[in-house]
Amino acid sequence: MADTTTDKPTESADAGGDERLAHRGPIQTLLTRPEIGALLGAVGVWVLFWLVSAPFGTVGGTANFLDVAAYLGLMAVPVALLMIGGEFDLSSGAMTGATAIFAILLANDINGAGLGLHVAVPLSLAFALAIGWFNGTLVEKTSLPSFIVTLGTFFMLIGAKLGFSKLFTNKVLVEGLDEAEGYDFWNGIFGAEWLRNGHVWDVREWSGLWLVRDEIWAGLLICGSAALLFGVFELTYARRSAVNIAGFVASLVGVAAALVGFVALTSLDGRASNQMFGALTAAGVILAVAGWCRARYERPDHSDNGRSAGWWQYLFAGLAAVGVAIVLAVILNAEDSSQLGFFGGSFGRVVFALGIAVVGVLAVLAALGRVTPGYPAIGAVLVAVPAISFLVTVQAARAILFGSFALIGIALLWSAAGRVRPSVVVSLGISLVIVILAFFVQAESASRKLRVELFTVLLLVALVLAASAVARHLSAARRSAPPPPQFGRWMHLCAAVGVVATVVFFVLEMADGDAILYAVITGVAKGGLAAFVVYAVVTAAFTLLTRDEGVGRALVTVGIGAVMLSVATRLLFVTGAELEKICTVGSDGEMRCPQTQFGVVVLSFVVFAAIGSWLLMRTQFGSWIMAVGGNKEAARSVGVPAARTKTTLFMMVSGAAWITGMLIAFRLTAVQADVGDGNEFRYIIVAVVGGNLLTGGYGSALGAGIGAVIWGMISQGIGFAQWNSDWRFLVLGALLLVAVLANNYVRGKAEKAPVKSSATKPDRAGITIIVPKGLTGSKEDKE
Amino acid sequence: MSTEFLELRNLSKFYGNIIALTGVTTTVNPGEVTCVLGDNGAGKSTFIKILAGVHQHDEGELLLEGSEVRFASPRQALAAGIATVYQDLAMVPLMSVWRNFFLGQEPKTGVWPFRQIDIDKAKMIAKEEMAKMGIDIRDTEQSVGTLSGGERQSVAIARASYFGARVLILDEPTSALGVKQSGVVLRRIVEARDQGLAVIFITHNPNHAYPVGDRFVILQRGQSLGNWAKDELSQSELTQLMAGGAELEELQHELAEAGAS
Questions:
Q1: B138–A24: do the CB atoms touch at under 8 Å?
Q2: Looking at this predicted complex, what is its ipTM?
Q3: A67, A777 contact by CB (below 8 A)
């Protein structure tokens, strides 16, 4: 705040802070994004199939569903952009096949033009772009609905594909791509594949240098979650002007405790030690978070809610009591019907006798009025416990102790709830339930992945939830958005390029040597990984060493990047254990492993989704897309070249169709005349699932990509789960509907929540202004 | 007389055999509000569209700083410094305030393949400009669809003045608003005038026009009834002219009779 070097935005943002507006934290901002429903849906669908099928969560399964998703998503991203621009392209599906057939017929010298691929491939691009231009210009010049215009193009393309195929080859199959001149060169680009299992991040290959996959995954996930959590805190809570030393020390103690707990947890194996050190880790993390909040963020003003200061004693006492109840329930064996019998033997009897004597003396003193009657009463109870213990079985003790601790815990939590915001207690309660669920899963599940992975993830979720609840209670919310970090724009570029390139690197790592693009792309990707690492280090340094207020966004970037990397590691790499399961040792003693292949289509898809998203969110062109889709006349009147924008969008769709067509052609080398027909509706559906508005003006390119992944997971997952595939479309339809409804619900909630004191209408009011364009009523039909 | 900023001499427009507008003569100067009044179908929209470059005039002269001009497109009019705030507000309701504010003229940063909008700067400027108009926008990220009518007008006016408009044409800015919001918009008009803009205020409500106007043009059925400075005209005269004089008197009689009986 006193920092004079901060540039202007800070000043004005602070000065212009509006008391009517609660600063929208990153979580709320995230919830208003159009793709959030799809993202949650994707996670849900993945977990569902991962639970019910063994191979779905492996590298092979991932390659399988990503392949389907990528062919769809590659087109869905530009189709979504076009849809946001307010138009549809029904010819997009047929176009994918048309470019493939066009290229093969031009290249082939047996029953085609014999031009060779060096001419045919660029020509087919020109052909595709020309059709896109034609669609766009016609729609613009005539003001006819694009639905009708592109329907015309669609039928013309279908007819042309069939007609020309029959004309030249006398068949409905166009083949012979691999015999055309220049095949090897273009196959290196469009036919490239990356083999996965040959290059395993395994302790056997990387010994001494790297750990096994699971540890990299876990490590990245933990670091990423931590960075993300603190980044979100930075964006949500108001900074103190001076660091609170006591809080900082508490935070350090917490970190130390968590580390000790974690190390002990991983090095020891036993039920009691697991539970003890697990609890230590959790307590350490929560203490670290609480201490950090005390040290760094402003205290909230609690006066308005009438909370008393002692809330946390009740809260933690309550949590501790419930925790003890759980531990007791686990430690004391439910099967054991023997009697407890403390203080058995002569020693016990002596103690027992002495105890009775002391209680007697205390009773006399109490009778004389020298001590309060409480002391002999407590003494009597203490003496009674060993006496009763001769009568009680382990089972009964378990029931009594578990029940009483649980009751005390609940009572204390209830009491705390009266003193703090109920949401804090609810969050902590939920996290506790998740912990119990995690232990239940660990104890009861027969499946290794459920026992280990789900257990870990559940505990992590519970921990993050509990830590966030504590942080929320301890810290005051920001009133204005934080300024950008001081380390400048080029570092952000570094991060953006870095995150994308790193994911690409993970997909590509050690690919087939003969892919031409490979050498270039891996070079870029390795540079990107380096860029990301540099960014992460700089961010960490800035967070720890300076008082820069703006590191929140940077931390979030680093956190998301690390979590993405961890997910990529999890999905794209094989463990040693997995490898041993799927490989066979031949008679010559050599190990043979089935190869998992990732086509170049997956790479194109990732790159397309990233570029499309950036284009829409960050560039002038993106703004124009939303404007022409939202209110074309308005856009035109302020100088947006609406016709050019729309024509460019049509050409982008047809350009993507060309790439898809080439990928299909080089994968199959022979193409059916009807390939791709009918896919245009899938593209549109996937875009809608991803949160794009059917009437235009609003949406997300990334969402379309996620929608494609959902489609891929569902259509392949049903096979993996060995469900009857007759029901496939029923499941697909139901899940898609759920995804759309969830999206709608979340967005509706999020939009209403943050606006505090003004009677504003939600966006729905705005949506109705837009003139529906042809498809509005028929949404349900297609799904 | 020759140094008027924007001068219209006998401006006329025909659509085929329909005479949409004839003989409009007026002047527009910085720091002044020129009100164009007229009932529905009087030719107000045609008048705006000629100045905004959507249509071109068929007769008469349009002089900008003494030299004759003819705008072929909205972009040209915009480039000459004539910004129009349309009745439908020319806003995209689903887009955020800052995106609307900068639509078509986004501030950019970065080198070519990575060229992107300077979002922080855009948000900051949008907020500052709105504050200058006296509107404390809650969040520039909120969509325009959630703003009230008066706030939307303010965004449009602030946008026009920020992008160097010298002439601001307001097409019926008060017609869809309540009494209080109309007052707010009228205040914006005065503020824009005080900032040195030339304002052309199109309305059919003489009660809104008279307090803020410096000069009045009244249109009726495509004809210009005249061009008055404020001191040549009282409010009741303006109201009478606007409603076609005799017709209004008749109406007043009728109403008075109806009230008496």
A1: no
A2: 0.78
A3: no
